Structures are given as structure tokens and as C-alpha cells.
Inverse folding.
């Protein structure tokens, strides 16, 4: 019998949606265990890239909350941490009009920067934030996203470190929201279409109308 190569990773079967979220979440895309394992791997890849150089991590609010917390606890290189708040408001979901709700405070000039986001979708956010950061003259910038929805790309942008490429589904959990909800789910799941087909009802949060399905930004 031919022995199994050590590199073959056994396929993890999709876990059932926890009872509390059944009816809202269609299925689990990545379980907490799958995410934890991949985040550890990402940390190893990032450490190999930056060696022992001090890093400035720039994390985009709000979706990176869980990913970032898990990622940095596996990084043992010296680092400093800062956040940028970015949102798109106004009419036209896909307008790409970004509003900065929090500006960077750390000086990144001449520094090694790792830009962290939860999901790369159309690429508009990363494209614009990268341009803004590059103008601050860092030594180099690398990007890291947990999820990459390749099929929806509008801007020519790629992440250097990707947790999981995903199909074009509306995903929530592990920091990702729908109308600010579901960020607390410990897994990444596909939102049931009925949650955004039943009108803009509850989705209006602080004057921000619901996101259109398939888009991360507010309409
Ligand atoms: C989400 C996500 C990314 C962006 C990706 O942000 O966090 O920053 O959309 O979309 P893009 O590639 O099409 O630009 P969102 O505005 O939903 O804010 P949030 O992080 O607070 O959820």
C-alpha cells in the first residue's frame, strides 16, 4: 500500500450551523477550527516574509476585529499596531466613495507595513487605502486578507497573504457583518438570502441603509 504523503491535508467536512443561527445562516463556510489553523499558517508566512524587522500593522476597522486579534497573537516579531477606519456612504452601493472614520496615527515613513483587512471584494477599499499609505513613504507594504472574493474584483489589486479564496456569496461572521450584525459569530457562514430579501427593515443602522446583497459596503 502506498503511504499517504504527509502534505495531504484531510478535508474537513462542513459543520452544521449552530442552532442559534439556523434560519439566518445558510451554511458554514469555514469553521472556527479551520480558521484558527489557517490563521496560524498565515502568521508563519508573514514572519518568514518580514524576518525580524519591526512591523507596523495597519488594520482596517471594523471587520478585522477577530482576525487581527487572532493573527497578532501568533506573531512573535516586534510590531506596532494602528487602525484606519474606512467606510463608504452615500447613494450608489458601488460608487467606491470612501470616508475615513479614523486616520492613521503612527508614522509609517521608512517602515515595513502590513495592511490587514477581513475581505477583499471589489478591491476598491484596498486600492485606495494602499495609495494613501504609499504616499506616506513606507519602506514597503504587504497586504493580508482573511477572505478573497476574486470573482468580484473591479480594481486591479491582489493581497500578498490570503487566508481563503471564496466564491461570490454574502458571508458573515468572524468580524464580517451584515448591517453591523453577525460580527460575533466564531465561524464564517453564508448569510441566508432571505435576510436581505425581506426589505431594508432592521438593516438600517445609525442612518446607514442596508447593504445590497453581494456587496460589503453600505448602500
Ligand atoms: C468591507 C471590508 C473591506 C471592504 C471590502 O468593509 O471590511 O474593507 O468591505 O470591499 P471592497 O473590496 O469592495 O472595497 P465595510 O465597509 O463593510 O466595513 P466594515 O469593515 O466595518 O464591515
Amino acid at each position: 500500500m502506498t503511504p499517504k504523503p504527509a502534505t495531504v491535508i484531510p478535508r474537513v467536512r462542513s459543520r452544521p450551523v449552530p442552532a442559534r443561527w439556523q434560519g439566518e445562516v445558510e451554511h458554514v463556510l469555514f469553521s472556527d477550527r479551520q480558521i484558527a489553523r489557517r490563521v496560524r499558517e498565515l502568521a508563519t508566512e508573514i514572519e518568514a516574509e518580514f524576518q525580524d524587522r519591526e512591523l507596523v500593522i495597519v488594520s482596517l476597522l471594523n471587520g478585522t476585529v477577530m482576525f487581527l486579534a487572532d493573527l497578532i497573537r501568533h506573531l512573535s516579531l516586534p510590531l506596532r499596531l494602528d487602525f484606519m477606519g474606512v467606510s463608504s456612504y452615500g447613494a450608489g452601493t458601488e460608487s467606491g466613495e470612501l470616508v475615513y472614520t479614523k486616520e492613521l496615527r503612527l508614522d509609517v515613513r521608512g517602515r515595513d507595513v502590513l495592511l490587514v483587512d477581513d475581505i477583499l471584494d471589489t478591491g476598491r477599499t484596498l486600492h485606495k487605502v494602499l495609495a494613501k499609505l504609499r504616499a506616506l513613504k513606507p519602506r514597503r507594504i504587504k497586504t493580508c486578507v482573511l477572505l478573497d472574493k476574486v470573482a468580484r474584483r473591479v480594481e486591479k489589486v491582489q493581497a500578498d497573504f490570503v487566508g481563503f479564496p471564496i466564491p461570490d456569496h454574502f458571508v458573515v461572521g468572524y468580524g464580517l457583518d451584515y448591517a453591523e450584525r453577525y460580527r460575533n459569530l466564531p465561524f464564517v457562514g453564508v448569510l441566508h438570502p432571505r435576510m436581505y430579501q425581506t426589505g431594508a427593515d432592521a438593516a438600517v443602522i445609525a442612518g446607514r441603509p442596508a447593504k445590497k446583497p453581494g456587496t460589503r459596503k453600505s448602500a
Q: What stands out?
A: Residues 34-166 form a domain with the Rossmann fold fold (CATH 3.40.50.2020). The longest strand covers residues 79-88.
